[in-house]
Write a structure and sequence with these properties.
With 220 residues, this protein is α+β, with helices and mostly antiparallel strands. The chain is 30% helix and 30% strand. It has two domains: 48 residues; 167 residues, no CATH class. The protein has four helices and twelve strands; from the N terminus they run αβββββββαββββαβα. The strands form three sheets. A five-stranded mixed β-sheet has the order 3-12-2-8-9, covered by helices on one side. It has a four-stranded antiparallel β-sheet with strand order 4-5-11-10. Strands 1-7-6 form a three-stranded mixed β-sheet, with no helix packed on it.
Length: 220
């Protein structure tokens, strides 16, 4: 009897130890992994800008939301709008194959993205909701905020803090212009290719350990 009670006591200790370990692993996962996206070569970067109403969730092919930055109408007669295409150091939620994480861009990568976009003459490459390519939209001004206090973006009350990529566009397409005025499209969103997702592979062992602990607890 004493031996049985002793074994039972050990089993309870094992269960509590494993429960604690499992809880610790789960708590660690609540702090989402952060992935810095970078540009390896000139084939990477932004190749189109999309007008969106809500965020899109994709994998290595990046489709980012407007990041809660409103697209502002500057001149209704001239059909000009302005907003941020990218904001540095802003954590952006992503989910790939049930793996949740945040991505972000440094100021250097934002500036590089802006430069390559212009260099490749993608000024008229636009889509709506990352789905339909549209004609009749052109970037007429593009710049990266270097001095937030004295930057031109202050005229438009964009609230720049430094390092943002600002895009000003002219809308020649009648249907798109009406949609913008009606609030259907609220911001810019980039489409492009970036490096950095390989870092997600390092978390595979964590998932396997969680499953192993769960199986251990279920079999006791």
């Amino acid at each position: 009897m004493e031996r049985l009670q002793h074994n039972k006591h050990l089993t309870e200790i094992d269960k509590e130890t494993q429960r604690y370990k499992l809880k610790k692993l789960i708590d660690m996962k609540k702090d989402l992994q952060e992935i810095e996206l970078t540009i390896k070569n000139e084939s990477d970067g932004v190749f189109a800008i999309s007008l969106v109403d809500s965020p899109a969730i994709e994998e290595n092919f990046i489709m980012l939301s407007s990041q809660e930055v409103e697209l502002k109408i500057l001149d209704e007669e001239k059909r000009i709008v302005v907003g941020f295409a990218l904001v540095p150091e802003k954590r952006i939620y992503r989910r790939v194959n049930d793996k949740e994480f945040n991505i972000f861009f440094t100021k250097e990568t934002v500036a590089q993205s802006s430069e390559l976009f212009m260099k490749k003459l993608n000024l008229n490459k636009f889509t709506t909701e990352h789905e339909k390519e549209v004609k009749g939209i052109n970037v007429i001004e593009s710049w990266v905020v270097e001095d937030a206090k004295n930057d031109k973006s202050n005229i438009y009350n964009l609230g720049a803090k430094g390092g943002e990529w600002v895009v000003m566009s002219k809308i020649y397409n009648d249907d798109i212009w009406n949609d913008i005025k009606e609030g259907k499209f609220k911001g810019y969103s980039i489409e492009g290719m970036y490096d950095g997702f390989d870092k997600l592979e390092a978390t595979k062992e964590e998932s396997e350990e969680v499953e192993a602990i769960k199986e251990f607890l279920n079999n006791i």
